[in-house]
Design goal:
Length: 339
């Protein structure tokens, strides 16, 4: 392990001051990802800034606009089991509980979940080239083992996927991210938070050095009547998504008034194509329409030696999850999906 100093801060102002806009000063929250990154020499730090004592970001608050604010330091477990989230945003609750394990969710924070790094095997193996870890060194996954990698939005610089479950639901719900930094406060739409690899695959998101996520806002609309989160993976627990889908519908007289569909496990960021959601507007919830929406979402998809199966898997997952969203009661433990 590299030597680093460790400091605890009591508020956001102190955190920003300690980070000092320097890339080598890193935040630790739950520590479930950054501790591994430090131990494996993937991330190097001069200073670790422990933000766990900041009390101002550790709650779930109802907002005047009908929405809800999730504190960045609230844990994933406390968020998923919060009565307001369970009742009004069950899609989010379900997505969080599909991730990791109970122990990890007890430690993992909401801010840390947005900032977690890819699970590409080569990113974690410092003996292999990886443009995300070591810009300009190349991408080992393109001609290597690429079963878990991207089929959408990738390029030859990086084909990694962003592994979060929670963020797929946040993308579908049109969440916004509240950020504080040396230049003050700003708000980013969820779709603008994470990045595609482009020419800078080392940058996962648009948070600047020295900034801190303080909270995440959910708009009033939670799709609590018709929602579903489907996660397809190699093991049924403790495993990252090969493909996941978050779906929310607003239905009236057997017509779709509004649709939201976001995918996880397929791209460098949660994948949402508004054109597909517009296509479903005012349409009947039918297999034919869901299939066409899936085609629009997956347009331009491209697989590699070991992950081409994901394209068909994603199509089937989208269609299946659209049906599941029509019958959210089918998602209770033990219930069979209604297809
Ligand atoms: C074995 C294992 C299995 C997992 N499975 C899943 C899964 O199936 N699905 C899933 O979604 N996730 C999964 N995870 C990932 C887990 O959800 C994340 O590690 C966790 O959410 C990160 O939160 P944390 O508070 O522990 O972050 P930390 O490890 O403390 O920090 C992670 C990163 O976020 C930064 N950071 C933390 N808080 C802030 C903030 N407020 N502002 C700015 N930067 C911040 C840190 O500097 C660091 O770069 C798994 C993790 C493990 C170890
Ligand atoms: S896919 Fe991205 S993270 Fe994985 S080896 Fe290639 S550059 Fe690195």
């Amino acid at each position: 392990m590299n030597n680093f100093s460790y400091t605890k801060v009591a508020n956001v102002e102190q955190a920003i001051s300690q980070l000092n806009g320097d890339i080598r000063n890193k935040i630790v929250a739950g520590g479930t990802n950054i501790n591994d990154l430090l131990k494996y020499f993937i991330t190097k730090a001069d200073k670790i800034v422990d933000i766990n004592s900041i009390t101002e970001n550790n709650a779930i608050i109802r907002l005047d606009n009908g929405g809800v604010r999730l504190g960045a330091l609230h844990t994933n477990a406390d968020t998923a089991y919060d009565p307001v989230i369970e009742e009004r945003y069950p899609l989010l609750s379900k997505a969080i509980l599909a991730g990791a394990s109970a122990q990890i969710r007890n430690m993992a924070t909401n801010g840390g979940n947005l900032m977690q790094r890819t699970r590409c095997y080569y990113f974690y193996d410092i003996n292999t080239p990886c443009n995300k870890r070591d810009p300009g060194s190349g991408c080992s996954a393109i001609s290597g083992h690429n079963r878990i990698h991207a089929i959408l939005g990738q390029n030859d610089n990086c084909i990694a996927v962003f592994p979060s479950d929670m963020c797929v639901a946040l993308a579908a719900l049109n969440a916004t991210v509240n950020i504080s930094g040396p230049e003050g406060e700003r708000v980013l739409a969820f779709a603008e938070f994470h990045r595609l690899p482009g020419d800078t695959p080392n940058q996962d998101n648009n948070l600047k050095h020295g900034e801190i996520i303080t909270s995440i806002d959910l708009p009033a609309k939670g799709f609590e009547k018709n929602y579903s989160y489907l996660k397809l993976r190699d093991r049924s627990s403790y495993s990252f998504a090969l493909v996941s889908v978050a779906t929310g519908f607003d239905l009236e007289n057997n017509r779709i008034k509004e649709a939201r569909i976001a995918l996880g496990g397929v791209a460098h960021k949660p994948w949402r194509i508004p054109e597909a959601e517009d296509f479903l507007k005012d349409k009947e919830p039918s297999r034919e329409n869901f299939s066409e929406a899936a085609n629009i979402i997956l347009k331009g998809s491209k697989g590699y030696e070991h992950n081409s199966f994901k394209i068909m898997l994603a199509k089937k997952a989208i269609i299946r999850n659209c049906f599941m969203a029509l019958h959210p009661e089918s998602q209770r433990p033990g219930a069979k999906p209604s297809l």
